[in-house]
Specification:
Order of helices and strands: EEEHEHHEHEHHEHEHEHHEHHHHHH
Number of helices: 16
Largest sheet: 8 strands, parallel, barrel
Helix content: 40-55%
Distance between the termini: 49 Å
Structural class: alpha/beta
CATH topology of the largest domain: TIM Barrel
Strand content: 5-15%
CATH class of the largest domain: Alpha Beta
Bound molecules: iron/sulfur cluster
CATH superfamily of the largest domain: NADP-dependent oxidoreductase domain
Number of domains: 2
Shape: globular
Strand order of the largest sheet: 3-4-5-6-7-8-9-10
């Protein structure tokens, strides 16, 4: 495993971090994967209060055989649910309990979008609360995960003595959100950066258009799309660790192999040019830049927003009929035509997607002919099955 040194505390962190947002459904399999990852040197595990039962599962696994002491746990406070000072302890203590630990190595304010939100927390006493937790050893490093525009990222970095931060960064989003400039600014301040969404929620793996895949497949060196994606992120020296959500043992093995070899500035000019071509090919095939994160959900009208957008993008990759087939199967009672244009979802979208406008596009492109006859037939066929 490649380790990178945290410039703030000289701690060695594995270049690959285990993203714990979605685990395999069998907890015994999760345990096998986590044990294997630790054996191979992965020492950073990222979860959050809001990731369902992820903290509890991670806590159960790490409480065995001294595993807790071998790793750093990162978890996150759902700061957007904090209403009063006492909520800080309420969320934090629940997380300690779930994780079966009495300290958190890397604690983040989850999904901060702007300076105003952070200042709101300051008004509730977050600075004093963090200072107390750090002095008692309950929190070792304090940071924030960010989804917002670049200017707000700069403002946040300047407003507080952060130990680290976390941003979305991948070869498709080089200039989106904090972006490369944000990464470099953090680096210039000596603030280590953890990277999330290195494969853009799988878009850079399973959903690559044919033209992009062809470019990768014809590269002089043979690598999987996931390998290319992680390697691009790790090429940046400011990146301390890249998180990957790994649902199978094979993914764990492949990602470990990549992280063990992808050192900063290792990519050649030729390889970097290849990414430009792949990026262009993907953009040409995408209608909406949804990552599928689900932060816009739930919709009061039960529209499955990420699925609607995924289907819209699929029309460029799989063609209209196949996309429509999946659109009907996945969104029958949750389709775009249920949208009443209330706009409640838009402020939660880290990609700043004009969801209302795009919903109209989904309706236009997917719910015109042959939506109704196809849905009629599919429902009959499925009912028979
Ligand atoms: S604008 Fe449409 S998709 Fe968004 S929350 Fe309102 S009804 Fe749901
Ligand atoms: S529309 Fe935005 S918030 Fe909703 S899933 Fe897509 S990227 Fe995430």
């Amino acid at each position: 495993m490649q380790y990178r040194v945290n410039p703030k505390n000289n701690e060695e962190i594995s270049a690959l971090g285990f993203g714990c947002m979605r685990f395999h459904k069998d907890e015994r399999e999760v345990e096998r994967q986590i044990r294997y990852a630790i054996e191979q040197g992965v020492n950073y595990f990222d979860t959050a209060y809001m990731y369902g039962n992820s903290e509890a599962i991670l806590g159960r696994i790490l409480s065995k055989d001294g595993l807790r002491e071998k790793v750093k746990i990162a978890t996150k406070m759902p700061y957007y649910m904090v209403r009063k000072n006492q909520d800080f302890n309420r969320f934090f203590n629940t997380e300690l309990e779930r994780l079966q630990t009495d300290y958190i190595d890397y604690y983040l304010m989850h999904m901060v979008t702007d300076l105003k939100s952070w200042r709101g927390l300051c008004d509730l006493g977050i600075r004093e609360w963090v200072a107390e937790k750090k002095s008692s050893g309950r929190i070792r490093n304090i940071g924030f995960s960010f989804h917002g525009v670049q200017s707000e990222f700069f403002a946040l970095l300047d407003d507080y003595d952060w130990d680290f931060c976390m941003i979305q960064f991948n070869y498709l989003d080089e200039y989106v959100q904090a972006g490369k400039a944000g990464l470099e600014y953090a680096g210039s301040k000596g603030i280590p950066v953890i990277v999330m969404e290195p494969l853009r929620g799988g878009t850079l793996v399973q959903k690559l258009p044919k033209e992009a895949l062809d470019l990768l497949n014809h590269a002089p060196v043979k690598r999987s799309p996931a390998d290319w994606g992680l390697r691009w992120v790790l090429n940046h020296p400011q990146v301390l660790c890249v998180l990957s959500g790994m649902g199978t043992r094979q993914m764990v093995e492949e990602n470990i192999a990549t992280a063990s070899d992808a050192y900063p500035d290792k990519l050649t000019e030729e390889e970097l040019t290849l990414y430009t071509g792949v990026r262009d090919a993907i953009r040409a095939a995408t209608k909406v830049s949804c990552t599928g994160c689900g932060y816009c959900m739930p919709c009061p009208k039960d529209v499955n927003i990420p699925m609607c957008f995924s289907s819209l993008n699929d029309t460029m990759i799989k063609g209209k009929i196949m996309s429509l087939y999946w659109y009907i199967l996945m969104t029958a009672e949750h389709n775009a035509s249920l949208c009443v244009q209330c706009g409640k979802c838009e402020s939660h979208c880290p990609q700043a997607i004009p969801i209302r406008e795009k919903m109209k596009q989904v309706q236009r492109e997917l719910e015109g002919f042959p939506y109704k006859p196809m849905r009629f037939i599919l429902e009959r066929v499925l009912n028979k099955v």
